[in-house]
Amino acid sequence: MWIALGIIGAIIVVVLLFVIGVYNALVRLRNQVDNSWSQIDVQLKRRHDLIPNLMETAKGYMKHERETFEAITQARAAAMGANNVADAAKAEGALGEALSKFMLVVENYPDLKANQNFLSLQEELTSTENKISFARQSYNDQVLGFNNKIQMFPSNIVAGMFAFTKRDFFEIEDASQREVPKVDFS
Question: Is residue 81 assigned to a domain?
Fold first, then answer.
């Protein structure tokens, strides 16, 4: 009888250790996903902060482009107000499209293209766009690992017990928004 109780106790301890190990792995992966999102958020904030400076520099040269400036302002406001990954992806895609159109309009203003302040801001924006791209890739990699863990057996049992839920990828839905805004005036 003591042997049977010992075996049952050992099985319970093994199962408990397994659940603890899987739970801790899920928490670690969830935190990695959150950290990756924070990295995107930092770069998006940097992008959002650069845009007004870029527009102010351009306004002096582009007095007749009010619609272009309004489109960027509205897209920026929507991007800054996004509350979840799907909304952020959609809003950032629209902002990227508005910036692309802005950069195309800038082509018509050679004095602006030669302005040192504008060129500096343009270079920072290009650098930020690259950092956002890398941060998105890292985030999506972390989401993939997390989603795999909560959906694969046997960790899906522990994930279900503790209400771990699938995370959304940072995806751009509109194919035209997948292109990085062209900011090269060479």
Answer: yes
Q: How many CB atoms lie within 10 A of CB 136?
A: 22
pLDDT tens by residue, 47-88: 999 999 999 888 878 877 888 899 999 999 999 999 999 899
| Nearest of 40, 60, 47, 63 to residue 99 by alpha carbon | 47
Residues in CB range of 38: below 8 A, 6 or more apart: none
What tokens appear for 154 in the block?
């046997």
Closest CA to 55 of 132, 115, 127: 115
- Distance of alpha carbon 37 from alpha carbon 61, whole angstroms: 37
Cα dihedral value 25, 26, 27, 31, nearest 10: 100
pTM for this predicted structure? 0.79
Let me know: does 113 contact 59? Beta carbons within 8 Å.
Answer: no
Residue 167 CB neighbours (<10 A): 21
With beta carbons less than 8 A apart as the criterion, state whether 149 and 159 touch: yes
In a domain, 8, yes or no: no
* CB-CB contact of 29 with 159 (8 Å): no
Judge whether 118 lies within some domain: yes
Q: Which domain, by its residues, includes 42?
A: 14-178
